[in-house]
Amino acid sequence: MSSVAHLRPVAEIARGDISAADVARSCMTTVVNGESGPARLNAFISFDYESAISQAERIDADAAGGASLPLRGLPVGVKDNICTLGLPTTCASRMLAAYRSPYDATAVARLRRAGAVIVGKTNLDEFAMGSSTATSAFGSTLNPHDRARVAGGSSGGSAAAVAAGLVPAALGSDTGGSVRQPAAFCGVTGIRPTYGRVSRYGLIAFASSLDQIGVLGRSVADAALLLEVISGADPHDATCAALPTDGIAAAADSGAASRPVVGVPAEYFTDGVHPDVRAACERAIEKLRAAGSEIRRVSLPHTHHAIAVYCTIAAAEASANLARFDGVRFGSRSAREAGADVPTQTRSAGFGAEVKRRIVLGTLALSGARGARSFDTACRVRSLIAQDFARAFDSGIDVLFTPTTPTPAFRADEDIRAYAAYSSDVFTAPASLAGLPAMSVPIGLSERLPIGGQIIAAHWREDIMIATAALLEERASS
Amino acid sequence: MTPAREELDRAADLARLRFTDAELERLARDLDDILKRVDELFQLDVADVPAFRHASAPAGPLRPDAAGADELMIPPSYIAPEWRDGFFTVPRLPTHTERG
Q: What number of other Cβ atoms are within 10 A of residue A2's Cβ?
């Protein structure tokens, strides 16, 4: 049995050339070895060897019985803010350290129905709030390319697990960039779909108007196939659109034939962009031009307000969503001290500092004299940001190309707080605010650190976004 | 604009969070940095700009309009260690009185 059987392209695994049980053994041996001892990346919060093998054996039996399984035997990591039966769902928080979900998220259920094997739950920033995985109550995830650097966040565990070859693919979640940014930092492909493309049922909410489940993979084709499987209408999520999903995976095969009109927004190439990131982007743009694409310079003038808008809206929605964790409805109840009410005690002990900071920020944005203006103004400026994108796409642009992050992965010992902590989301937050599909693909290295290029498309146009990414990926290897 | 101590105290109270004085001082500094950027938004003239709405798309199927909870994927006994007469049993709170 090959020790890298689980790292074949998803389509090969799904063909059944090798049994699901052998793929699972290969994967789980790698996970067990990789997540043990001082060399561990801490990509996983939990995993279950026996369960993975058992799932795989059932899949082999079902396939032998004639079942159609498009992801037959594919091992998948699931970010630990997505509910799974049989494994804990902790959100990387003390608050949910003991929580066992009574149901699978719709995205997880669809993966299982397609024959995927759920390997384990990947690490994240606590309640998905962060850009490094450093706020996890279970320790940081290290970057496989440089263990002194962060893996990114909040889906850092998923990105690191895929980059290190522990699993071939993983689910993440993206609110302001939490799939794309760690994908860029770890050198893998990460897709955030259009808001409403993938059901949020079973995704523990951070900011409900921004959250989307996304996918990470070792290639554009792998990520696109996973996205197609998990997409589609869901009676449990009224914000999930009833639109066709076939064609999403096939878009990865049409890269060479695509000639997208590519917009390059000036506001994403500012002085704060690392020289190696700028150079990698310029090379990628030239590759697209050489492949026959028209390149147009565009302007998205409200881009510089995006982080302030994101901070306000995300924190406000988080303060509402996390109100349920009170030791009565949800959450590990803290021991009662004299004079302290159960919810305050539970929340003060159960949440980490970053989560508390965002809850207070959100509470300020929704209350008192400041609250009367903050949230409403932020929602209106959000419209301006969305209108910038709409004007670009209405002018004939097929996709926008930008750096995913202004710099490669930062050092794990950097103490980045407050506003600066959002700085690596400066290029990812705008697409989130507008509800647009966006993805990151590897486009180069800064010394040994990966650099990601971001492709943004119009609503529901994952096809052209993925085709453009596939074109870049194909050109990168030529 | 640094949030006033009273503002932070009230927000913490509303959020059911408790902080030490040192934590509140640090929180004030962190939030000052963020709130300065947020306050810049107030300089924009957005009176005639509608609040953001996501792109519309065909709505998905609705669940049947029927009373009752969704069927569980797993038995109730899996969720709670103690279960009696159709109810989960939980530790008694001091505010509860004995009922006959």
A: 11
Q: A71-103 pLDDT, tens per residue?
A: 999 999 999 999 999 999 999 999 999 899 989
> How would you label A309-333 residue by residue, b for 16+ Cβ within 10 Å and e otherwise?
bbbbbbbbbbbebbbebbbeebbbb
Q: Are A123 and A136 in contact (CB under 8 A)?
A: yes
Sheet containing strand A438-446, edge to edge, reads: A44-47, A117-122, A75-79, A169-174, A212-217, A189-192, A438-446, A449-457, A399-403, A262-265, A295-298
d(CA A84, CA A98): 13
Whether residue A348 lies in the annotated active site: no
Please state the φ and ψ torsions of residue A248, each to the nearest 5 degrees: -65, -50
Contacts of A367 in chain B (CB under 8 A): 10-11, 14
The answer to whether residues A314 and A361 touch, using CB atoms and an 8 Å cutoff, is no
Instruction: For residue range A415-468, list pLDDT tens digits in order.
Output: 766 566 677 899 999 999 999 999 999 999 999 999 999 999 999 999 999 999
Predicted pLDDT of residue A341 = 86
Assess contact for A13 and A108: CB atoms under 8 A. Answer: no
Q: Does B90 contact chain A (CB < 8 Å)?
A: no
Catalytic residue among A19, A101, A140, A154: A154
Distances from the Cα of A297 to the Cα of A75, A268, A310, A353, B74, angstroms: 41, 11, 25, 41, 55
Mark yes or no for CB contact B14/A459 under 8 Å: no
With beta carbons under 8 A apart, name residues in chain A contacting B36: 419
Instruction: Determine if the peptide bond prior to A154 is cis (ω within 30°).
Output: yes
ipTM, 2 decimals?
A: 0.88
List the 23-62 stretch of B: residues with Cβ below 8 A of A. 23, 27, 29-31, 33-38, 40-42, 44, 46, 49-52, 54-55, 57-62
Q: Output the pTM of the full model.
A: 0.94
* pLDDT tens by residue, B21-79: 999 999 998 888 888 888 899 999 999 999 999 988 887 777 788 887 777 777 777 76
User: Torsions phi, psi of A277, nearest 5?
Assistant: -65, -45
> Is residue A178 flagged as an active site residue?
yes
DSSP code per residue over A68-87:
--TTTT-EEEEETTB--TTS
Q: Residues of A with CB below 8 A from B51's CB?
A: 376, 379-380, 382-383
Contacts of B50 in chain A (CB under 8 A): 380, 383
Residue B100, pLDDT score: 43
Looking up tokens 């065909």, which residue turns up? B58
Integer Cα distance of A115 and A300 in angstroms: 42
A364 — pLDDT class (breaks 50, 70, 90)? very high
For A195, nearest residue in chain B (alpha carbons)? B54
A59 vs A315: CA distance, rounded Å: 42
Q: Say if the Cβ atoms of B38 and A209 lie within 8 Å.
A: no
